Amino acid sequence: MKEIKLFITDIDGVWTDGSMYYSEEGYQMKKFHTYDSAGVLFLTLAGIPVAIVSGENSEAVRKRAAKLGIEEVHTGIQDKVALIEQLLSKYNLSWEETAYIGDDLNDIKVLQKAGLTACPSQSADYIKKLTDWPLTKKGGEGVFREFVEKYLKEKGIFEDILNNYLKG
Fold it and tell me: Whole-model pTM?
């Protein structure tokens, strides 16, 4: 199993169900599943940072990330590869040391480069074919957590992390 040192995630269609909600006043809203916050917690306990890279410029995403303590939050990104290459340079990492989960067209170039890749179950077949792990959950149903737990279990460290959390 590869040694992953940075988990990178898309948001819409991964942490959300991909729907766009608008109020009568035109405010955009997103629905997040709380299960994904445990994925962030497990990675924090494992010493692996999380980065959000989203094509949508969303205050809701920034607020959710702040609540979870995610420092690398990049929204409104049209060229995800270029942004991630800046992150890799900042942290002195290679593509092989990154994990990425995405679900759609704007994720393809990253899925082709990252060391470990996954997608939610509702992703198109051509996206699934690009990933190492097409997952069982849909976006907005805790698929980020599923990805994290699967990685930590494959590394053989999930039980230790869980037990350390439970000891508190």
Answer: 0.95
Q: How many CB atoms lie within 10 A of CB 26?
A: 6
Domain 6-167, CATH 3.40.50.720 — does that match?
no
Residue ranges per structural domain of the chain: 6-167
Which pLDDT value is given to residue 27? 85
Q: Are 137 and 120 in contact (CB under 8 A)?
A: yes
Phi–psi pair at 28, nearest 5 degrees: -85, 140
Which pLDDT score, from 0 to 100, does residue 150 have?
98
| Helix, strand, coil percentages in the chain from 3-state DSSP, rounded to 5 | 40, 15, 45
- Residue-wise DSSP of 103-148: -SGGGHHHHTTSSEEEE-TTS-HHHHTT-SEE-SSPTTTTHHHHHH
Instruction: Compute the CA torsion angle 109, 113, 116, 120 (nearest 10 deg).
Output: 0
**Over the chain (168 residues), what is each successive 10-residue block's mean pLDDT?**
94 94 88 96 97 95 97 97 98 98 97 98 97 98 98 97 90
Query: What's the token pair of residue 162?
Result: 């869980």
Task: Specify whether the backbone of 18 is left (phi greater than 0), alpha (psi in -120 to 50) or beta.
Answer: left
- Alpha carbon of residue 165 to chain centroid: 21
